[in-house]
Design a protein that fits this description.
209 residues; mainly alpha; 4 helices; 48% helix; elongated
Length: 209
Amino acid sequence: MLNVFRCLRVVRKTLLVFRATRRPAFAGRNFKGDNFEKLKFFKVPLKTYYSYLKTKNKKRVHDDKIDGGFTFVETLAVLIVTALLASQVGVAVNRIVKKAKVVSAKNQIEAFKLALSTYYVDCGSFPTDEQGLMALWEKPVLYPVPEGWSGPYMDKKVPADPWGAPYSYFRRGSALMPQSVPDGLEYAIVCLGEDGVCGGENDIVSWQE
């Protein structure tokens, strides 16, 4: 953001200098002095002289009003700088959104882990792969049916991950259990992340921070 403000200050100074160099040559000119003496020499009536000054002053005010607006070049320069700044802001926002999705997925996995702990206390075991995380929301009907189930163990139905894909759940002993899961953990929860590829560098897993 500091660089953005510096760019705006540079653009503002540049426009001011550019506009200052375009001011009419007669701005601030004194129409008295030598001109007045010449008019006296040629016997120009004062009424004509003051009429001349009034006309010139009106023209100067009119020209100053016209000069007060932005020219096409100035407007184009402002639009170009604005577009560049907007692109930088867009990249920053996109990066923030990606980071927020990762944090959201990690928080959701932590909520699953807490709910699974309560499920284990009531049922004596964790859900099977087939029962999955939906066992935290409604009582499983697939074998083995947990008789001690007293859920739901979550406040709402199991959501999809921030990228719209379902969370993957594996219990110890499953052939699909990731090999990177440390020994001693009875289950694993995996979010495939932005790329949606299992085992990719964007995976968010329950056994890592």
